[in-house]
Design goal:
The complex is a heterodimer.
Chain A: E1 4-7, E2 10-13, E3 19-25, E4 31-37, E5 43-50, E6 53-56, E7 64-70, E8 73-78, E9 87-94, E10 103-104, E11 108-112
Chain B: E1 3-6, E2 10-14, E3 19-26, E4 32-38, E5 45-51, E6 56-59, E7 62-67, E8 72-77, E9 86-93, E10 102-104, E11 108-113
Parallel strand pairs in B: 2-11
Antiparallel strand pairs in B: 1-3, 3-8, 4-5, 4-9, 6-7, 7-8, 9-10, 9-11
Classes of the chains: A mainly beta, B mainly beta.
Amino acid sequence: DTAVSQTPKYLVTQMGNDKSIKCEQNLGHDTMYWYKQDSKKFLKIMFSYNNKELIINETVPNRFSPKSPDKAHLNLHINSLELGDSAVYFCASSLRGDRGGYTFGSGTRLTVV
Amino acid sequence: SQKIEQNSEALNIQEGKTATLTCNYTNYSPAYLQWYRQDPGRGPVFLLLIRENEKEKRKERLKVTFDTTLKQSLFHITASQPADSATYLCALDATQTGANNLFFGTGTRLTVIP
């Protein structure tokens, strides 16, 4: 009965590989997000996705692409992984607007070696 | 450029005292502001939302104020307990810029000493 679930929890991979992180929410929320938390614990928005409307943070490299098969899922695909991609990635969901806070997943710690 | 700053990276207080955390922002006009708690190895957990037309919001031992003139929010935990030790994050919406996203501050790590 987890509200926002991400898999895997840990991901260790070599430079240059392609990997995906999955995210699912069972809250009936209409908007989903991906955030990156770096080593200094700063949370930075990467994408938001609402009813097929994708908003991309302009600083996100195009090696990162979100894929949403339906409203309850927003997966993150990363091509050609680099050392600097190592971070914790959080998926979140919410209702659009100020009707409540975001619900976050427990995070995926990505380590690129 | 837009900035969200939380007054200190770390704050230590004695159990039973009131903890006050500060969030200042520049070049935003948020319609609302939120506070989250993050424990090590976990995702942030939503605590409170306050709208631009609200001065104060309370929830149990938590109180949040929002001053759009000063561009500041204060987050208070009264009668603090060691279990309140965590990192607290403020977050602003960017709706007025056209994006439906929350932008987070750098966080304050609170330690409540028994």
